[in-house]
Amino acid sequence: MKYHLVTLGCQMNKSDSERIAAVVEELGYVVTEHEEDADLIGIVACSVRQAAINRVYSKIHKWNQLKSEKPLLTFVTGCILPADREKFLKLFDLCFQISELPELPAMIRQYGVPTPFSTNRAMDPAEDAARLAAEGFEALEVDGHKIIAGRPVMMKQPETRIAGFWDITPHYQSRSEAYIPIQNGCDKFCTFCAVPYTRGREISRPSGDILAEVRRLVGKGYRSITLLGQNVNSYGRDKPGQEMRFSELLEEIGKFGETCGERFWLYFTSPHPRDMQDDVLEVIARYDCLAKQIHLPVQSGDNKLLIRMNRNHSVQDYMRIVNAIRRLLPTATLFTDIIVGFSGESDEQFENTANLMQEVEFDMAFVARYSPRPGAASSRWEDDVSQDVKKARLHRLSEILRQHSEAHNARLLGGVYPVLVTGRDRKDGYLSGLTEGKINLRFASDDASFIGQIVDVEITRTMAFALEGRLAVAGSQSPEDS
Q: What separation in angstroms does the CA of 248 have from each of 172, 196, 244, 429?
């Protein structure tokens, strides 16, 4: 029997998908890239963007049509708002929170579907229910019934459930890059964001488990590891006196990197400016394995709009952090997120954001046009910036970003830099990869043994957002070394 999985949204959803794959494959399913060949189809949804939710409805319409041709079980999970969940319950066979993933096998069995694993032993739904109840599970109630998508299912309380989810060993999709979730949920309640309503409040994962996963991945040859959370730098604050602070967690990883004898880069995303302190930057500066790349979302360059967004930081606060990054991590690349056309954004407020981009000179910015999401506070406000204006503002910021990226990359010409080789490039005879600062690069080589390794590359050509080079000759230097 085969399964097919569709993943929408952010890196957190991609990481969640790796754990879903592990659970499904433990049941005996084999992955297929073709929906029409699958007996089990799932989608990891993202309620943060309307376009992503529209894709969910498009997919399930097609999958429900397939049911007239063959037996098929469908499920949806991920970041799902309550309003979307109510609709999905009527369209999918199974709808569950990602923290309930450990109970997916029980859900499938209680739905009456045999799996390759279950056919090898007797399965008693009543026995399963009694076992789950004895372990502290509770029934989920929907519309007064203890069901999930029409079938009985038992689930634990939030913190117990997410701990069980974290215990699942992911089926990693890459041989060299891996994600490690360190927390779930968000306490910030930005007015444009639905995450607190889809993932709940912040819960920090035990640091011992995080460190064990880092050690295990490095030991298996992973060279790029990213710590994931909605606000990673608030890690541990929900468990004062019980858990490390984020800077302390990075310190432990840095110490491990110095002694393990393996070369790797440790990233994290995303920190919140409200919680970013110099101690994190100082730790990164001390250890080679802590990558010199910071992704720090600003969202707007206007103070009044930041208040309307409930960001709880000012432009001045943000610039203080930027200046600290430039001082403590002079070689670091700086990425950000920006929303254009937020409710009430005036021409003057947008210009303030454009001016901030000019001043900071980001290496990369993920610029999105605002779209209201039901459940988020701003959905109650008028979406009063036209699509044409949003589009024009996005293009304006994209052009500023392109100019800065082109100038930054030009300064790398002739230098030698370590590059993590991630695969074959679209151009024949080339391999592609990422610098430590996450700049895309390709170099001439047909040697697949480099994939998954960090190699030194001399930069021979630069452009906006990308570099080209050749394998370095021993003794070459980077511009910073000369």
A: 26, 26, 6, 43
Q: How far apart are the first and last CA of the chain?
A: 59
How is residue 106 written in tokens? 């029980």
Out of 2.60.40, 3.40.50, 3.90.1070, 3.30.420, the CATH code matching 2-163 is 3.40.50
Distance between CA atoms of residues 431 and 79, nearest Å: 35
Distance CA 443, CA 453 (A): 14
Identity at 464, one-letter amino acid code = A
| Spatial contact of 7 and 19, defined as CB atoms under 8 Å apart | no
Per-residue pLDDT of the chain (482 residues; tens, 9 = 90+): 899 999 998 888 899 999 999 999 999 999 999 999 999 999 999 877 777 788 898 999 999 999 888 889 999 998 888 888 888 988 998 998 888 898 888 888 776 555 454 434 344 545 545 554 554 444 444 334 343 333 333 334 445 567 788 889 999 989 899 999 999 989 999 999 888 888 888 999 999 999 999 999 999 999 999 999 989 999 999 999 999 999 999 999 999 999 999 999 999 998 999 999 999 999 999 999 999 999 999 999 999 999 999 999 999 999 999 999 999 999 999 999 999 999 999 999 999 999 999 999 999 999 999 988 777 899 899 999 999 999 999 999 999 999 999 999 999 999 999 999 999 999 999 999 999 999 999 999 999 999 999 999 999 999 999 999 999 965 445 555 54
Give the count of beta carbons closer than 10 Å to the beta carbon of residue 445.
19
Tell whether domain 416-481 is in CATH 2.40.50.140.
yes
CATH code 3.40.50 region(s) in the chain: 2-163
Please check whether residue 22 is in contact with residue 168, taking contact to mean a CB–CB distance below 8 angstroms: yes
Look up the pTM and report it. 0.85
Burial class (CB in 10 A: 0-12, 13-18, 19+), 90: exposed
CB 95, CB 148: distance < 8 Å: yes
Distances in Å between the Cα of 47 and the Cα atoms of 286, 367, 368, 371 are 39, 18, 15, 11
Angle formed at CA 305 by CA 303 and CA 307, multiple of 5 degrees: 70
Please give the Cα distance from 137 to 147 (Å, whole number): 13
Helix axis angle for 82-91 and 50-66, nearest 10°, is 10
Q: What residue spans in the chain does CATH classification 3.80.30.20 cover?
A: 170-410
Q: Please, how many CA atoms are within 13 Å of residue 182, restricted to the half-sphere of its CB?
A: 33
The answer to whether 24 and 61 are in contact (CB under 8 A) is: no
The 3-state DSSP class for residue 53 equals helix
Rounded to the nearest angstrom, the gap between the alpha carbon of residue 482 and the centroid of all alpha carbons in its chain is 37
Record: fold of 170-410: pyruvate-formate lyase- activating enzyme (3.80.30)
Q: How far apart are CA 29 and CA 380, in angstroms?
A: 44
